[in-house]
Predict the structure.
Amino acid sequence: MQTMPQDPLDMVNDLSKMGLFKADAFKVADSITGQELRQALFLKMAAKGDPKRERLVVELAKQAGGLDNAFAAAFGPQSGQFFADSIRASQFTRREFLRNLAIGAAMVTLANCAKAPDESTPTPGESVAPVEGLEKTDLQIGFIPITCATPIIMSEPLGFYKKYGFNAKVVKMPSWGAVRDSAIAGELDAYHMLAPMPIAMTLGLGSGAFGVKLASIENINGQAITIAERHKGKINGPADFKGFVLGVPFPYSMHNLLLRYYLATGGLDPDKDVQIRPVPPPDSIAQLVAGDIDAYLMPDPFNQRAVYEGAGFIHKITKDIWPGHPCCAFAASDAWIGENPNTFRALNKAIIEAAGYAQDPANRPEIAKAISDRAFLNQPVEVVEAVLTGKFDDGNGNTLDIPDRIGFDPYPWQSFANWISSQLIRWDLQDDGKVAEVITPDTYNTVGENVFLTDLARELAIEVGQTPPEEIYRIEKLAYDEFDPADPSTYVQAQIDKYGV
């Protein structure tokens, strides 16, 4: 340590060679607050009972002029502003500040390296430093009883809400319309929403304009097209659905948009050749059996439950239509976020951490047991476990093993928002031209970036040890085409030209 170079750039190089510093640690060092990382907790995390490691951390702190100086420089929530203030106050030189930031980043990396391999994902309910400044701790979070809501639901029984200082209760809602109406009425603090809903609500599509932010994605994939048993052997592709009555959970849903996308590839006009109607997911199997609908594109566990009951068979999982597509999301209103900024940040962080836990296949049997309870999904454990593990019967005599049948990647890609907007334009669900008025070729990015909180989700994911992407847009590869988020209008026109709708 006595030979530690004083030049910050040389220090970074040395620390890199020692394996104590990674470039990503700068981001963490810039985002963690001193309140969340107090000296005792940090030493405990970094040392893990190893006296040599603890001495190394202490020596690093000495090089920075003490833990307070290192934390102030490295972990300030706005380090750029801190540096400017420091220069004016003549407390630090620029070189000293950069040195401390480099040391702080090394300390963050050291703490992360201290985790054992099986500790990369936090243990449910594991305590953290007290969360300070929460405007509200008693929370009610609305959810629909489907596996898409897994991170929101499991955070209650597995202790993720408690870990961040909340006494939070999840509230079972009967339909997406009820979720929307309760959100507008202010009856809930936050909600489980379909990914298109925050866009639609903010733009005033299907309801009065009401500002909602999509904070993080709850699940990717995880849906399926299920067909009534009476049609077995008759359906081979989208063209065979002509004349069907089809259920989706809500007009402004990925289910509706994906179903329309799929049907159009078979030459069907979703507004003329079939009937698509909203069906609350809990009612879907009963309507399938009664003959009110012929098939549905629904979230699980209702596809797997239809197989379990002998009511229907799985025709296609949505992963085969768009691998990695978004489905549901965690959301809150603009007004509530403005009134409770610290609470919102901590709550979103808890759910992002829960999503990371759910993404690990090893944790899914435990999660299935926790969320199958009557208070949550009220489903047989074996049905929920079949969905979460991807080991399932499809009702056609096949036993499948598809581990990514459902996933829990919380990162809200802006390209998701642009695809959703493109399909709202394509199908004009209100049939009055309003969609084209509020989403134009020049406003695709603006709409998405105003609603999807991608940067915040990345920041919080890094804080809980995840590795989200740097990019916010990507080319989305669907089964029948590729979506370039830089040119949604051309994409929509190409779809219309190819399929006629």
Observations:
- The radius of gyration is 25 Å.
- The chain has a mean pLDDT of 84.
- Residues 138-220+326-496 form a domain with the D-Maltodextrin-Binding Protein; domain 2 fold (CATH 3.40.190.10).
- Residues 284 and 354 are 28 Å apart (CA to CA).
